[in-house]
């Protein structure tokens, strides 16, 4: 996996910048103009070290608080760019990997749109065509969603680690430097090859599908759900203790999902919404979502995915119009099974992650049956060793 030390080729760097800056239809009108993304190399590349590209899309890690002791109060004027952040972990990081950076955006979590996720995947794909691993810097508010999106769409099986911080760069308790350092250490180790995207914060890394944010402000906010953590980074020591099920497909065409962003445009990603259920919930929001053009709706139901009588009536009417629904639970854990015409089971996916899978499945699936199949396969990975070849008694004895 280790490549010769070098600056990234000019053509590759240009391709990476182009992929990172693909515009959406309304970008120029709604957002301030940014300079074209460009690749920055840190230090002189060293022989024998892997090449890691840090792709930045914004978040708390590059933002500031109103004062050093006010880490729950945003709005300070001391925001920084990626290059300043990375320079703070040099030269130590230079002994771990040959590090370069491209900042494709600097957005808060609330500003992220489908086109931004599309562009992020294209940038990561371009980076992994040149580098050995990628670290993505993003906002923690929706990091669990960004992680799952990348997990489903990135084409390379090389390591992808997403990280950020819970506290701003100008506060006493800024956790971003340790998270950045640990993420590059993990990515450079190669130990998560074929894991897909993993999320690292607070020394631990977790699978993109399973990870969830559990606290609004604490730095130990991310947990791995029922599956727990995949491993940990302690200074420069990496220990991986388990793996996502997709590692069983490592090295085969089945490792990749069909969700190849290079084959579609951002405008082909359909509108998919989430409907929350509660006691005596009305139908108005579902009707409004359908009227606004939603092609899919995920319901976050009570208990095992149940919704109110009024919501059920609205769902039935929407299904007749071709809208696809996915049942999930608002409880935070536990599977939801069953379904019916126009209604899919969300299994144990969180509502916001079921929304991502539904958006991609609708974009790439030719009909409801194929969308359902994508949920039952890609959406429900299974660590099945029953069909793996087993050593013969002779070879097993020889290994003793």
Describe, in plain words, how this protein is organized in 3D:
This protein is an alpha/beta fold and 400 residues long. It has 11 helices and 15 strands. It has helices at 10-20, 27-30, 82-87, 114-128, 143-153, 176-189, 284-291, 309-320, 351-364, 368-377, 393-398; strands at residues 40-41, 51-56, 98-103, 133-137, 160-163, 197-201, 204-207, 212-213, 222-223, 231-234, 237-240, 272-276, 296-301, 324-329, 343-345. β12, α7 and β13 (296-301) form a beta-alpha-beta unit. The chain starts with 9 loop residues before the first helix and ends with a helix. Residues 1-7 and 23-29 have low confidence and may be disordered.
Keywords:
400 residues, alpha/beta, Rossmann fold, 9-stranded mixed β-sheet, 4-stranded parallel β-sheet, 11 helices, 16% strand, globular, disordered N terminus
How many structural domains are formed by the residues? 2
Residue runs with pLDDT of under 50 for 5 or more positions: 1-7, 23-29
Strand tally is 15
Tell me the name of the CATH homologous superfamily of the largest domain: L-asparaginase, N-terminal domain
Helix/strand order: HHEEHEHEHEHEEEEEEEHEHEEHHH
**Radius of gyration computed on alpha carbons:** 22 Å
Major β-sheet annotation: 9 strands, mixed
Which sequence of strands runs across the widest sheet?
A: 1-3-2-4-5-6-7-10-11
């Amino acid at each position: 996996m280790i490549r010769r030390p070098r600056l990234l080729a000019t053509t590759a760097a240009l391709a990476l910048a182009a992929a990172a800056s693909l515009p959406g239809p309304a970008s120029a009108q709604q957002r301030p103009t940014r300079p074209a993304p460009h690749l920055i190399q840190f230090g002189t590349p060293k022989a024998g070290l892997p090449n890691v590209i840090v792709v930045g899309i914004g978040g708390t890690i590059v933002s500031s608080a109103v004062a050093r002791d006010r880490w729950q109060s945003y709005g300070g004027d001391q925001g920084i760019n990626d290059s300043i952040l990375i320079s703070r972990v040099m030269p130590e990081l230079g002994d771990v990997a040959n590090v370069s950076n491209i900042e494709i955006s600097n957005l808060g979590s609330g500003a992220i749109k489908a086109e931004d996720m599309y562009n992020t995947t294209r940038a990561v794909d371009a980076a992994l065509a040149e580098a050995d691993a990628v670290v993505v810097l993003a906002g923690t508010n929706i990091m669990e969603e960004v992680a799952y999106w990348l997990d489903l769409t990135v084409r390379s099986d090389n390591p992808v680690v997403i990280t950020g911080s819970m506290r701003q760069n100008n506060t006493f308790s800024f956790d971003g430097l340790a998270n950045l350092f640990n993420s590059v250490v993990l990515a450079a180790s190669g130990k998560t090859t074929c894991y897909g995207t993993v999320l690292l914060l607070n020394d631990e890394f977790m699978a993109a599908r399973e990870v969830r944010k559990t606290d609004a402000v604490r730095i130990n906010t991310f947990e791995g759900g029922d599956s727990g953590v995949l491993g940990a980074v302690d200074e420069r020591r990496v220990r991986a203790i388990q793996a996502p099920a997709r590692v069983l497909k490592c090295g085969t065409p089945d490792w990749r999902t069909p969700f190849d962003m290079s084959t579609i445009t951002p405008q082909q990603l359909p509108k998919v919404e989430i409907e929350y259920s509660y006691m005596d919930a009305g139908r108005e929001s579902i009707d409004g979502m359908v009227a606004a053009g939603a092609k899919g709706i995920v319901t976050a139901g009570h208990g095992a995915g149940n919704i109110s009588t009024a919501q059920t009536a609205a769902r039935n009417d929407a299904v007749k119009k071709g809208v696809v629904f996915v049942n999930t639970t608002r409880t935070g854990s536990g599977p939801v099974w069953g379904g019916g015409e126009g209604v899919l089971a969300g299994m144990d996916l969180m509502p916001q992650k079921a929304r991502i899978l539904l958006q991609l499945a609708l974009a790439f699936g030719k009909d409801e049956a194929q969308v359902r199949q994508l949920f039952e396969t890609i959406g429900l990975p299974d660590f099945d060793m029953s069909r793996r070849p087993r050593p013969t008694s002779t070879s097993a004895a020889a290994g003793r």
